[in-house]
């Protein structure tokens, strides 16, 4: 959903202030934010100690892969977050079939029960 320079792990799980003295709690702990309706949003650090807050529901552009290929795209990336080792092969195989044009992308994202909204949303932006 968004990236931030602030490190939630250092701020709340250590007495340090940044990567130089935090003790790397991100290597041990899993962090999620919970919203008012109980949805959980995973927070993951990157190698630069920035944090990314991910949506509570997986997202997929599988429905749009055919059109992207028509426009000339040939390289795609699948980001996995907290899938188990047992889930990964079937998931990657499914996307490989969609990318190769052997499976329908729309059916794939429905079966994956993922969001298919792409781009930037307004979120809670209110103009005053």
Describe this structure in words.
The chain has a four-stranded antiparallel beta sheet with strand order 1-4-3-2, with no helix packed on it. It contains four helices and four strands. The chain has helices at 8-13, 65-70, 88-99, 105-112; strands at 2-4, 31-34, 40-45, 51-53. The two termini are 24 Å apart. It has two domains: 2-53, no CATH class; 62-112, no CATH class. The protein is an alpha+beta fold. A hairpin with a 5-residue loop joins strand 2 and strand 3.
Task: Quickly describe the structure.
With 128 residues, the protein is α+β, with helices and mostly antiparallel strands.
The major β-sheet equals: 4 strands, antiparallel
**Biggest sheet: strands side by side, in what order?**
1-4-3-2
The proportion of residues forming helix, as a percent range, comes to 25-40%
Q: List the helices and strands in order.
A: EHEEEHHH
Q: Which characteristics define this entry?
A:
4-stranded antiparallel β-sheet; 2 domains; alpha+beta; 128 residues
């Amino acid at each position: 959903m968004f990236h931030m320079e602030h490190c939630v792990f250092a701020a709340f799980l250590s007495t340090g202030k940044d990567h130089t003295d935090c003790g790397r709690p991100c290597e041990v702990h899993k962090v999620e934010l919970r919203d008012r309706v109980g949805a959980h949003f995973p927070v993951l650090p990157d190698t630069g100690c920035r944090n990314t807050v991910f949506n509570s529901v997986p997202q997929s552009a599988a429905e749009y892969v055919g059109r992207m290929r028509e426009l000339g795209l040939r390289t795609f990336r699948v980001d996995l977050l907290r899938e188990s080792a047992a889930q990964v092969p079937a998931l990657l195989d499914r996307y490989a079939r969609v990318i190769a044009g052997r499976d329908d992308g729309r059916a794939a994202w429905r079966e994956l029960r993922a969001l298919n909204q792409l781009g930037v949303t307004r979120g809670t932006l209110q103009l005053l």
